[in-house]
Design brief:
single chain, 57 residues, mainly alpha, 91% helix, 0% strand, elongated
Length: 57
Amino acid sequence: MSGTEKTKAQAEKAKGKAKETLGRAVGNERKTAEGRADQAKGHARQAKEEVKDIFRN
């Protein structure tokens, strides 16, 4: 996986986790849901890059 894409995936997952935690702390369900969505995007980006790596080798 390219370094920049890996970094983007990790950052997206971390941002999502922070949003989810903040949402839970203040009782904001919308923020919690946004955090979960951001985490899912990060996981999807990482999976996409791993598949690309498999086909490169």
